[in-house]
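To illustrate this point, we now present one chain and its tokenised fold:
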Amino acid sequence: MTDDHQLLSTKNLLRGTVAAAVFAGIALVTVILPAEYEIDPLGTGKVLGLTDIAAAVDTADVTFAVAVENSQAFPEREDTIEIPIAAGKGLEYKLHMLPGATVQHEWTVDGGELYYDFHGEPQGDTTGYYESFAIATSSGMSGLFYAPWEGSHGWYWKNKTDVAMTITLKLKGSYEIKGLRQ
């Protein structure tokens, strides 16, 4: 019985390594540097339109900086809210947030689990659009949320049990409370 699998010789390994290094160097100079850093030593980035990608990233950084600056319109605050939820019922609790604003949030419920949908709706939208950020059934949730746009952000909870419960919601950040919607 013969073994058809042959080990690569040192010469072939060295040849493959050198070829990979040459290919990586070409990719670095022709694609990566122009696209990521707007450095185009050979001019290929301009021909391929890659230098525009690096310029677009700079614009996004400026847009984010403006959004973070705008988030200071609502003062930093901290709240703890107790929200009763009846058996078999659902309700929403909303915050108004500006783009780039943050809120640290934690909610817990006594006596069981609730279905929840953490979502947001852009201000001024008349189509009914909303985006869900988290959907699950749980006895609690916590995190740090960055508002992607100005509008209403918050939770929909549904108590699918036959027992009333109380939600304890703790908030800290830059927001304005809109409150309950049932």
Notes: Helices lie at 10-37, 44-48, 51-70. The chain has two domains: 10-71, 76-181. Residues 57-64 have pLDDT under 50 and may be disordered. The chain has three helices and nine strands.
